[in-house]
UniProtKB/TrEMBL annotation:
This is Opacity protein-like surface antigen. InterPro entries: DUF6089, OMP/PagP_B-barrel. It holds the Pfam family DUF6089. Residues 8-234 form the DUF6089 domain.
Amino acid sequence: MRCKGHTILVLIVTFLSSVSVFSQERIEGGVFLGMSYYNGDLNPSKQFYNAKPAVGALIRVVLNERLAFKGTLTALEIGGSYPQSGLQYPSASARSSSYSFKRSLADFSTQLEINFFEYDHPFRRKETRFTPFISGGLAYTVYRRYESNDSGGSENPHFILSLPFGAGVKWKATDWLHVGLEWNFRKTFVDDLDFMGPGDINPTDPYGFQQPSDWHNNDWYSFAGVSLTMDIFHRNVPCNAGY
Ligand SMILES: [Ca+2]
């Protein structure tokens, strides 16, 4: 029993010390504006092909000069006409040599953002106004999935998990305004983001390989753009912090 009590005490002390290490220094909130696009069987590798608008909101809980938790909510669209010019799909019939789709997505993510340089250091704010960063975590995607049924087919909202990661740069423009440029990727675990219903071309296998591979065949979507965030909460710091 004594050993158990000791273990619990160690756990509590460890938890409290990690809470104090991770207590936030600042909270930022703001908006994102950019372009989104799709990669999948119809467009295996071309970046920003058929790009569409993307808008979002983000909140950043800054833990210290190197780390922040970021929550994002983004509304975006992917779609357009495929294939790229000069490319024919073997699975296409004589009537149709291209495939068009349009898909609206809602994306929620929670990510850890890691700064390459110290950013907005409380005691050296003037010298720490710029940094590149990378981010990664977990995301949810919501879209209306097409499902065939007895009455022909239906579309209902569907939640899927996706893996978010990204990179960018941040610049502290004024005492309270941060400007970011970032490029975000989402690896999903579904292959039907580009599937709007039965048609001449099968978007899950337009080349007729008939060899599904989870890694290569699942759909990705990405978005890149500008973020503007402002400080909405600042933890009090000692008066020698430059205020
Ligand atoms: Ca697909």
